[in-house]
């Protein structure tokens, strides 16, 4: 079976080869592009390879022990897993830019890296504007590279129908996460125009399309499609993947308010300063008395929130019972996903791997 450690090694090797090839193209254009080549290697070397792992689990859920069959699917799996990692990197670059985040994984975010390059060289013009523009273009470059990686892998598959299914699943994922990101920034601005009773539903819609499908369901389906998965097996993976993806993002929502900066790599209460209208916030608003709700609305999204003000908002949200309710939803979604898995008829190794994934993403600290 294609195991997560083996795939991670293969993805790292594939990305190293791919980036070396693209670096030679950039060098042929101009040595001024060397910083982009160097930064791409650094930026793509980090992370937990989480979506690549999900892709491998989807593949294994179909192929099981036959995962190394010589039909081009193994190479396509590695390429697709690598493409998912590059696509995710592009999404992070743009997400940090949209959120005006200073850090990513405990290091400067991409636009801050390019801003520092400008400032350090004492170039003409505005360093921050250069950083933003460079990050937009770098993210676009990564998006293009993710497509190139995927197409290179799928081109070698004998089963063209499966290759087509994998490409369509990737395309849909790309659309969903992009419009999900738009819905997220829309909600941060337009929430005042919608009745309080609709906020939870709207927050859940953002959660589903910006994160839940993209983080777990789509990579599982892409891997299973490459493996030639039947409609039944892919349906099982969807029934498992979506609720676990929701639980995964709900855990992220809690960490965005209460996470330890030493663990998450983000400042404490970062989601509060950014004004994220998450499910946690929507539930807290439902439960709070009017005076606390007004206070939360007034302070949420203020980038100048002090540590004391962050602490006050954290206590208000917890005292409302919202954290306990979110924890209950995480537990219920995990149970629903594992129930679908138990009834799905997948082989034991695949079921064990997916069960391990479910617990890993819902009980994590970062």
TrEMBL record:
Keyword Transferase recorded: yes
Cofactor: Mg(2+)
Keywords from the named record: Magnesium, Metal-binding, Transferase
Domain of life assignment: Bacteria
CDD domains to which the protein is assigned, alphabetical: Trans_IPPS_HT
PROSITE patterns attached to this UniProt entry: POLYPRENYL_SYNTHASE_1 (PS00723), POLYPRENYL_SYNTHASE_2 (PS00444)
Family as reported in the entry's similarity comment: Belongs to the FPP/GGPP synthase family.
Identification of the protein by name: Geranylgeranyl pyrophosphate synthase
Species per Swiss-Prot/TrEMBL record: Agromyces marinus
Organism lineage string: Bacteria, Bacillati, Actinomycetota, Actinomycetes, Micrococcales
